[in-house]
Amino acid sequence: MKETTLTVEGMTCNHCKAAVEGALNELNGVESATVSLQEHRVDVIHQDSVSLETMVEAVEEQGYDVKA
């Protein structure tokens, strides 16, 4: 398992948190995704087979911007 941290702009409430965590947790190979609203980040524990691009795309599809 790997851990990747994504910086996500635009998350302000528990609905945002649930949307981003849900989108990432639905990806095959993601063990867990935990949002920190205060720090504007998501910590994702995942298998090596899950690419950064796949995770970014899942978050951006929810309407949030991922910063590199």
TrEMBL record:
<keyword id="KW-0186">Copper</keyword>
<dbReference type="InterPro" id="IPR006122">
    <property type="entry name" value="HMA_Cu_ion-bd"/>
</dbReference>
<dbReference type="InterPro" id="IPR000428">
    <property type="entry name" value="Cu-bd"/>
</dbReference>
<dbReference type="Pfam" id="PF00403">
    <property type="entry name" value="HMA"/>
</dbReference>
<dbReference type="InterPro" id="IPR036163">
    <property type="entry name" value="HMA_dom_sf"/>
</dbReference>
<dbReference type="InterPro" id="IPR017969">
    <property type="entry name" value="Heavy-metal-associated_CS"/>
</dbReference>
<dbReference type="InterPro" id="IPR049740">
    <property type="entry name" value="CopZ"/>
</dbReference>
<protein>
    <recommendedName>
        <fullName>Copper chaperone CopZ</fullName>
    </recommendedName>
</protein>
<keyword id="KW-0963">Cytoplasm</keyword>
<feature type="domain" description="HMA">
    <location>
        <begin position="2"/>
        <end position="67"/>
    </location>
</feature>
<dbReference type="InterPro" id="IPR006121">
    <property type="entry name" value="HMA_dom"/>
</dbReference>
<keyword id="KW-0143">Chaperone</keyword>
<keyword id="KW-0479">Metal-binding</keyword>
